[in-house]
Amino acid sequence: MKCDKYIGFDVHQATTVVAVLNAEGKVVLETIVTTEAAAIIRFLQSLSGSLHVTLEESTQARWMYDVVRGYVSEVIVCDPRRNKLLGEGSKADKSDARKLAELLRAGLLRPVYQGHEATRELKELVRGYETLSADTQRMMVRIKAIYRAHGIRTSGSGVYQQKQREQWLQLLTEPGTRQRVSWLYEELDQLRPLRKQAKQAMLAEGRKHQAFRLLRTIPQLGPIRCAMLVATVDTPYRFRTKRQLWAYSGLAIVTSMSAEYEIKAGRVVRSRKPLATRGLNRNCNRRLKELFISAAVAGSRSEPYHSYVAGLQRKGMRTEMARLTLARKIAAVALRVWKKGETFDPKKLNSTT
Question: How far is residue 244's CA from residue 238's CA, in Å, rounded to a whole number?
Fold first, then answer.
């Protein structure tokens, strides 16, 4: 009789360690296969029954997901930050694969969303733009750091301008240091055009999506932020409520409470102890967190958001909490606009979204 099998993959560059459990949790097979599509498919086809596969989110996770999903009943790419069981006991490839299979069988894994084909190109272009932007910023920081290390002040962006470089280089008296900065300037000159090309390609691809045009009607959601939002969220129907989007975006407040219930007059009643807050949730999508918070910081200085923030502050809310509330509002508005297929209406800003 065919039965369910729970398979844990511990994926590495050259090999993948596999552990297979049956429905009773007994290990029926442990093996190592080459991390190649043909080898993985042959292995899965050699197994009978309903196959359930899990692997942790990693560099190769999306590729592996595409390889196996047509040959199994279920595939879960799980969040490694939540798999605390892997930290217990001995650390080895086979034990990791076995523990993943155990978590899968117990239904304790949280899947990582893998997205649709329609936004795959945009996702890659956004990653490329982010990488080149980070490399450009890193190069600029390195250049300024060398000048500061020699007691030379470098306020502003003049140190990067080609017309002023010779003047700046003359301030460096050591030939080796001067040559080092010259190389960094050359690398910066190569990165800037590439970053511009990546930006143009990302925006061109983003404009092909209807959601991009809808989100552009929201103040402070410019073309770059909209392209990143579409690439990251993929579809608004992933989130049933705005609070789910807040948690995913790192805008949910973490609370802590103990001794939640007490006995009064022989009855169990809820305690009136106040909740202790512990800041925002850290297990989140950092791209969306930076996107919404930066939009709120910039938008709090101009309409239509300035009046909204001012109203919160008049009610006694601290400035930083008012900005967080605005970031949540922008996220909620974006979710509503995307789901409803409607443009931004400033009259609805103060309503419950």
Answer: 9
